[in-house]
Specification:
8-stranded mixed barrel; 35% helix; 223 residues
Length: 223
Amino acid sequence: MRSAFVTTLALFGAVKAAVQGFDVSHWQSSVNFAAAYSSGARFVIIKATESNNYIDPKFSTYYTAATNAGFIRGGYHFAHPGETTGAVQANYFIAHGGGWSGDGITLPGMLDLESSSSSQCWGLSTTAMVAWIKAFSDRYHTVTGRYPMLYTNPSWWIACTGNSNAFVNTNPLVLARYASAPGTIPGGWPYQTIWQNSDSYTYGGDSDIFNGAMANLVKLATG
């Protein structure tokens, strides 16, 4: 039986459309969700948690505002690999807003994988990092029935996972690259599901481009 994500890959590969979205956290003191929706944006990813001891203070407010404005929305978790296990951080994320439901307006959670202020790879080997991500991903899937989206940039993925292709058939890629095109896709993914193309979006946060038509975005949310 084909996995839901493999089926989704086939759908995305056939389309050329795109849907504007954005992501936000407490670093944005105010976000104009209504204006963003009016401008054509249709999805929002909101920071929910970090490590296993931090809840973003704006998450609840922004999640409610995004819902009221009509957005497809979801949460993201800023990973601290190596501090606690992937499963522990997945549980924390799910318990504090990062879960998924098949209501058609909730995206699977996103795992934010990037450097800390002091260490690119959080002190882990490439093998240990892949194992940590897999533990998070598997736990999220066990609890919610969906695999999380993985947010990363090519240099981090190559340096910290050895350019692993272990997640190609399960986890949608959210690619961070601030440029005029997505460029080379790491990790064996044939393309990105979402492209974070700018760290400055008119109505708040970072600009995200969904790689597909609105029907495909709804499919991602529905599962």
